[in-house]
Amino acid sequence: MKSEFSEYKGVYVFVQQVEGVIAPVSFELIGKAKQLAKALNSSVSAVLCGHNVAHLADELGEYGADTVVLIDDPALESYMTEPYAHAMYSAIEFFKPEIVLYGATTIGRDLAPRVSARVHTGLTADCTGLEIDPETDRLLMTRPAFGGNLMATIICPDFRPQMATVRPGVMQKCEREPGRKARVLPFGVKFERNDRYIEILDVIKKMNESADISEAKILVSGGRGMGSKENFRMLYDLAEVLGGRVAASRAAVDAGWADKELQVGQTGKTVRPKLYIAVGISGAIQHMAGMEESEIIIAINRDETAPIFNIADYGVVGDLNKVVPMLTEKIRAMKENA
Amino acid sequence: MDFKLSSEHLMARTLFSEFAENEVKPYAAEVDETEEFPRGTVQKLQHYGFMGIPIPREFGGQGCDSLTYVMCVEEISKRCATTGVIVSAHTSLCCDPIYKFGTAAQKEEYLKPLASGEKLGAFALTEPGAGTDAGGVQTRAVLEDEEYVLNGSKIFITNGKEADIYIIFALTDPSKGTKGMSAFIVEKGTPGFTFGTKEKKMGIKGSSTYELIFRDCRIPRENLLGAEGKGFSIAMATLDGGRIGIAAQALGIAEGALETTIAYVKQRKQFGRAIAQFQNTQFTLADLAAKVEAAKLLVYKAAYAKDTQKRFSVEAAMAKLFAAETAMEVTTKCVQLHGGYGYTREYAVERMMRDAKITEIYEGTSEVQRMVISASLLG
Amino acid sequence: MLNIVVCIKQVPDTNEVRLDPKTGTLIREGVPSIMNPDDKAGLEAALRIKDELGAVVRVVSMGPAQADAVLREALAMGADEAYLVSDRAFGGADTWATSSTIAAAVSKLPYDIVFTGRQAIDGDTAQVGPQMAEHLGIPNVSYAEEIRVVGDSLIVKRQFENSYQVVRVKMPCLVTALTELNRPRYMTPGGIFSAYREKQVNVWTRPDVPVDDANIGLKGSPTRVKESFPKALKGKGEVVTLDAEAEADYLVEKLREKFVI
């Protein structure tokens, strides 16, 4: 079996850049790719697509890429499915990588499946663990399945490259080595507009970008037990005295009490803050899948049998309407006295 | 004998339950507290076709059956008895008699907008001197120049001030007693038709219970529903159907109380353990659950009888009697299981107990139901 | 008149799934099956286009016979025709084989727009939509939050992490819908009755779907599940029940210990 794929070599990473800024997940993937390449006795290539982006190659080298495949073309100015899929497809056909990794971002999750269908190979979504099987040299791709209730390890035995998208924030990037250089390989791809091309009419920045909960160090998160949108106010008060942000469970988002942006969990965001306070959240597995890596978890819930208490470091059983405002007041008083 | 609901009934129940959970339950406490008619919710009910479930599609309805309608009232009443009775009074007491006794023109003019949700309906029989004794109606209707002139007043009318179309009962020939009673379709805004006081009630506080006053209120002759003198039998036939709606409301209240109490007893601790672990709790809940199930079978059977039999008075009376008394017992015992908290407005069972009481009274008291049932036994 | 195909999947309501605390295995019993939420948003988007401009909305689902229920639900919401792609030969498919099978089924129907949900809550892969578009050879726009028909094109507001693109895409095209796209309508009671009593779900088995044997089912799936195992949960910490004031004090103390405040 191995010999059949002997022409497929190297671990490749799709580098996601928007307006000349490389997404952090790309560095995380390079970090992971280095481990995989080591196990395979191979090397790491970063595929950099865009227009006038050659200067980004240095940074990729410093984070551990051995080679940067540079596809620089006006057609790749902004992300669009078709030209990017064509670029990746062309690179895969030419370089025949053994493994290709993408960030499980909105771009990666749009691009990778389109490429997998075009190349005719498997793709495993949203992986949280990647390793090489020492016996077969296959890539073992582990991902949460069934709403995060189960973990499944997926393989792609009969097709190459083996492809995966990887959740941001899960892999560790390498220590930056200033001055480390990657070999840059410019790769020309011919782009011809066809009906699959779309036209970008406008780009709108989202408001309060900084409110991204996955960046917050402290999260105060509300669930179904909050009872109403008005009650969320007290979470904002608590978050304010703690210098944190407010998040929510799917139940609270579905009820219209909080924006989808704030949703933590399997269908929302994965967060790993220093402190996560779960208020009125019973702890559906989907929710826990998105926050259980938090350093400290505090749960406030009326129901002592709520599953959230199984993963909380500190839990209090009680009425959130009383405990939360009191906690806020006490912290505020402490800060004022300090 | 087949106790399995069909796929369409199961899906309809899922729909009603989901709708009630999202659109009705969040407002239940507020409706009770403010005594405001839940207009926003009723608009949604109208929009999704919930106000004409058993009426055929050609008359603007949904073309479903009585069982589907009953499940709708049940699921809604489980969360909010006020909203449940709004649907029931509109459908059973206003749409149904026009469908059954109305002329083609009346169906076109009145039933279509009612069943399709453009308009809301009400039914007015009760008067200060005519409650259980419906024969004591005093309101008069006199034919003058192709118009009936109504004089009198009606009390305790559900959907009272909110409705657009009313079924009114009045005497056209007082000398004939109940045989001199006739039914009329009256539109809101007709000159001479005004509203009196709003009742302050123990429960179902948002249902807009008003007095209706008629002073030389002239309505066209073609708004006579059925023949002259047929009013009393129209009223009785209509109430047979209405009782199934109220039975469903009572069933819903009982189910709602049981459900919230089951959740409560698992969580409430006394003497170091959840009160669900005490045999008193367990046995009480077991008795209540058995009664609720029995009520459900009676209510569903009555709905089935309405669609398949010419007469279903006894089935309707049994369903209403049993479901209403079950609702009262279940809510009372559920308050007891909640202890002191159950007596506070923080917990929904307090409201449910107040709401349950009316189901033993309106559209025929429990005593009237017993009269209907015993008459069928003893002839 | 526009032709719209909406792909929907019946999924277990993963919110209702619990783990057996003793064995750590899934309790699947009694878990209700629902229409996948993102797919429902796609259906609602299609029905709104139908309401506004007129369209024939056809729903397609691949799955076992029980998936009939989600197709009836779609009919009860207002879809015009329903197709269930169902055969043992299609079973065990990964996203690649699934997308090639459904794409082949869809290719038999007229379409200007194909809607899929962004992802299914039981798989969360978000792959079938874009893969189908590739198999059909049409453009796809993922993560749609707003959508408008303008002439021969759609104008779609497409979500990214920190921004939106407003794009124009020529029909025929495929759009993957997010729950943010809209709030799906309820069924109507009469819609339910007519879905069961008047309309039908057309069942397409293996011979009805023009797709190569190599591209369906387990055999046609490039990926394989090597193993699956319950997720290890973090250990239980302390849980206290005190009065509210004492609980607040307790938490302040713990936050201090951990140098959060």
Structure description:
The complex is a heterotrimer of chains A (338), B (379) and C (261). Chain A is of the alpha/beta class. In chain A, 26% of the residues lie in helices and 26% in strands. The longest helix of chain A has 18 residues, at 320-337. In chain B, the strands form 3 sheets. Chain B has a 4-stranded mixed β-sheet. The mean pLDDT of chain B is 96. Chain C has a single domain (2-215), classed as HUPs (Rossmann fold, 3-Layer(aba) Sandwich). Chain C has 6 helices and 15 strands. In chain C, helix 2 links the parallel strand 6 and strand 7 (81-85). In chain C, helix 2 crosses helix 5 and helix 3 (95-106) packs across helix 4. Chain C is globular and about 65 Å long. The model of chain C has no long low-confidence stretch (mean pLDDT 91). The chains are: A alpha/beta (338), B alpha+beta (379), C alpha/beta (261). At the A-C interface, helix 3, helix 4, strand 7, strand 9 and strand 10 of A face strand 3, helix 3, helix 4, strand 9 and strand 10 of C. Strand 18 of chain A pairs parallel with strand 15 of chain C, so a sheet runs across the interface.
What's this entry about, in short?
The complex is a heterotrimer of chains A (338), B (379) and C (261). Helix content of chain B is 53%, strand content 15%.
State the end-to-end distance of chain B: 28 Å
The side-by-side strand order for the widest beta sheet of chain A comes to: 7-11-6-1-4-5-12
Most residues in contact, chain pair and counts: A-C, 99 and 85 residues
Average pLDDT confidence of chain B is 96
H and E string of chain A = EEEHEHEHEHEEEEEEEEHEHEHEEH
The level-1 CATH class of the largest domain in chain A: Alpha Beta
Keywords:
heterotrimer; A: 338 residues; alpha/beta; Rossmann fold; 2 domains; 7-stranded parallel β-sheet; 5-stranded parallel β-sheet; 8 helices; C: 261 residues; 9-stranded mixed β-sheet
Layout of helices and strands, plus pairs?
The complex is a heterotrimer of chains A (338), B (379) and C (261).
Chain A lengths: L10 E5 L1 E2 L2 E2 L1 H17 L3 E7 L6 H6 L4 E6 L8 H15 L3 E5 L4 H12 L3 E5 L1 E4 L6 E7 L4 E6 L6 E5 L16 E4 L12 E7 L12 E5 L9 H11 L2 E4 L1 H5 L20 E5 L5 H5 L6 E6 L12 E4 L2 H18 L1
Parallel strand pairs in A: 1-4, 1-6, 4-5, 5-12, 6-11, 7-11, 14-15, 14-16, 16-17, 17-18
Antiparallel strand pairs in A: 2-3, 8-9, 9-10
Helix pairs in contact in A: 3-4, 5-8
Chain B lengths: L6 H28 L4 H9 L18 H14 L1 H21 L2 H12 L5 E4 L15 E5 L2 E11 L7 E7 L9 E7 L5 E6 L11 E11 L3 E2 L5 H37 L1 E2 L2 E2 L4 H30 L4 H26 L9 H12 L6 H13 L1
Helix pairs in contact in B: 1-3, 3-4, 3-6, 3-7, 4-5, 4-6, 6-7, 6-8, 6-9, 7-8, 8-9, 8-10
Chain C lengths: L1 E6 L2 E3 L5 E2 L6 E2 L5 E3 L1 H17 L1 E8 L5 H10 L3 E5 L9 H12 L6 E5 L10 H9 L3 E11 L2 E7 L3 E8 L2 E5 L11 H9 L3 E4 L19 E7 L7 E3 L3 H14 L4
Parallel strand pairs in C: 1-6, 1-8, 6-7, 7-13, 8-12, 9-12
Antiparallel strand pairs in C: 2-5, 3-4, 9-10, 10-11
Helix pairs in contact in C: 2-5, 3-4
